[in-house]
Amino acid sequence: MSDPLGGPALPEQVRRRNTATVLRSLREDGPASRVELAARTGLARATVGTIVGALEETGVLRHHEQVRSGERGRPASRVTLAGSGPVGIGLEINVEHVAAVAVDLGGEVRLRRTRVVPSVAEASSTLVQIAREVATSLDEAGMWALGATVAVPGLIEADERTVAWTPNLPLAGAGVADAIDAVFGWQGRVRVSNDADCGALAELHHGAGRGSRHLLYLTGDVGIGAGVVADGRLMRGATGFAGEVGHLPLGAPERRCGCGRHGCWEASVGLHALMARVDVPGPGADLGTAMRTAVVVAERARSDHEVRAGIAELGRWLGRGLGVVSGVLDPGVVVLGGYFEPLGPLVLEPARAALAEVVASPAQPVPELRVGALGPEAAALGAAERAVADVLDGTTELDPGGEISRPSASVRP
Ligand SMILES: [Zn+2]
Q: Partner of 340 for a Cys bridge, out of 35, 95, 246, 336, CB 3.0 to 4.6 A?
């Protein structure tokens, strides 16, 4: 192990990584004694003992059960992640609603909240409000925040703080990150992330992507967006804009897109394309109601073969585009989220067939296409996982100096 300049790792870096190794083992393989942890992780027993002792002191681990260990049958204690103490906070801001989810180190959801946004102009203040409620609730429950990530429907700069562009929300700049930092009494600690990136992480850890290491998540709304997970980690690209697939020329060439060009993928598979094909009137035309519209369409498809045919055509454009994107990324698993979820097999089957046709050679495996399992909560849940992931991969200190993360400092009136 070494630091980024190539020198030997500092003792605290080694300790942080070893602590992360122990935490991951407990999360992925369940409760263990110190001896079992040493065997699982390859760390020395003394090292494991020191780490477990320190984690017990901070309330991160709790006693699980007594077990016999060794030939003499001396009792040993199995420990498990406490399910209280530190949590990662995920926040989602959208045109219609804001949401908050807190996830503990074991991946359990400890808290969820949603609130309707009265108007687009009040979206940020509603988010701050819900963040304050979360801070208070964590205090009352004896939990404390490791960090927070805000999922935003837009482009995020590589600094993971600055919103570069949001088509439907006035969020440009680092204002959102600063405002949430202020709620928790932090400086520069809150991260902002693209909502499709967060959805990809949520499906990886909690939904249809569980068990995979490589995953492409495609979320459908008025626009479409993708999140890419490579070897268990988000792939963001050189400038943070990886996964911006909506305006790639993968759609029907004659279809005009909202961006003014023709042939964009989202002009053929976005919500408006669905509505044009199946002639769904009324409230579904509004932004943010994609899920509800899709539920209505799926219901209608049960008795109307023209609606089914319209969805199938959309599915074929979806599969064709996915074939191209998969040829570049080799994702193994593709999860369809957003408004594709309620359409289920109606869109999945034709997409699957078209995807298989595009894949070039018999040697190239066709990625497995699945429908997402998390619904509208996906973005907030994945955002919470981002905050936890920093500790589980050893890049962030579990308890970096008390005043930052202790409950007493986590609420600011
Ligand atoms: Zn376009």
A: 336
